[in-house]
Amino acid sequence: MFLAMVAMGAVFGAVQTAVTVYAGTIDKPGASGLLYAEFGIGSALAGLACAWLPQRFSLRARYVSFATALFGGMLILFIGAQLVSLPVAVALAGFTVAPYMISIYALTERLAPLPGLRSP
User: Fold this and answer.
1) How far apart are CA 37 and CA 87, in angstroms?
2) pLDDT attached to residue 7
3) Which of 26, 11, 7, 13 is nearest to 87 (CA)?
4) 103 exposed, middle or buried (CB, 10 Å; 0-12, 13-18, 19+)?
């Protein structure tokens, strides 16, 4: 789980750096905040949608699926920014973040011992 969260931190750092550089390149440094907000809004919408996932979609399957989606989202951000536009790529990549984080937190909760059941 530690490495999963390290990967998440790397994603946030890479996106923030890429967005800031892009905004500077187009001579609109203030646009970086808007682009990063777009990333966050997409993530929030996808996170809300996770509430409607069926119970039969196991936690392990969710983690694997969402880790794959996050990887794909970052590829879209990397490749798509060169082929289409960074704002479009940021929007698509943003949808992958919250589902991945939700599955990491849920798995961590299952792996962590309950406070009242610790051995002496």
Assistant:
1) 11
2) 87
3) 26
4) buried
